[in-house]
Task: structure prediction
Amino acid sequence: MKQWIAISVCASALLAFNAPSAASPTVRAQQIKFANALVAALQSGDRARVIPFFHPAVRACIDDRTRPFFDSVVDEQLKGFPSGKYSSIDTTSVSAKSTPSLWAFLPEKAFPYPVMPTYDIQVKWDSTPDGMFIDMLEAAPSGASWYLVTACPNADGMRLTRTMLAQKARQVARGKELASKVHGALLEQIKKLLAAHDRLGAAQAYQKATGSDLTTAASVVDAIEDPHE
Result:
């Protein structure tokens, strides 16, 4: 499902903010260089360009068994990523007692981190066609370079990942099926709202007309907006 409030989160999780702590000028310069290069990779829409931005210890985890998890993480980052120059970058050091944001949504034991984040990096666009967009990145250094960090799912984590991906595929298929049945004034209303970059309004219009839940409405609107996705 596309983001209705345009906030993209590394590893598909919302960031838990920590008390700000300024990086040294050298460290901040390295972080900004990393963020600039990552933004360019994401704006290319090419998954293969994004994978090298993961920490070496995370990349070591990527194999045939775990690839569906990492593909889904990157695909979620790519979806709806804004073009153009960002407005600001903020960096915040992470307390040693803090836990990765992913663990607020997925079980820690099934999604262990090979390396923990040491900084949160927030890249912000004040104005995009869909409103404000904030990309929250959990990062850690390796040598003089900075990288994204996320989990390395174990067998239990991959079972859960496959379940969630199958669930998502069913939702997408259902959205396409229902979208094929939208005609007339409702279809025109939804297309008009999408043209105005009001995805939430379009989903709410479908929800009101059909009595469906918002998740289903969102999947229908996604299918109408991009029938080939």
